[in-house]
Design a protein that fits this description.
Largest sheet: 2 strands, parallel
Structural class: mainly alpha
Strand order of the largest sheet: 1-2
Order of helices and strands: HHHHEHEH
Length: 104
């Protein structure tokens, strides 16, 4: 199972954004974001709501937000934003990639 920091690092890498730029866009100090990345802190539900709102504003559209992973069920009841939960999202994605590679 992936931890929050690893997941966030993967998202940062895929998006090609520097962590200090993400921290600025989210309104957080880069050192605080660094604590998320190294798993010494996790963002509380209110911060997750704030991140979702800021990301939606930044991309200019209403995105679908899906939570996955071990701690999601503990956090979601405290979030105000609409967040779907899929505990198997990563496995489903890996299965799709595997199937696409098998048809080549």
């Amino acid at each position: 199972m992936s931890d929050f920091g690893s997941t966030l690092r993967s998202i940062i890498k895929v998006c090609g954004v520097k962590s200090y730029i993400l921290a600025d866009a989210l309104g957080y100090d880069p050192s605080y974001l660094s604590k998320w990345l190294n798993n010494s802190k996790r963002p509380p539900a209110a911060m997750i709501d704030g991140m979702i709102r800021r990301i939606k504003k930044e991309i200019g559209e209403n995105a679908i937000v899906v939570a996955t992973g071990g701690i999601a069920p503990a956090i979601l009841p405290y979030c105000e934003e609409t967040i779907s939960y899929d505990p198997d999202l990563m496995l489903k994605g890996l299965a799709l990639i595997y199937k696409k590679n098998q048809t080549r």
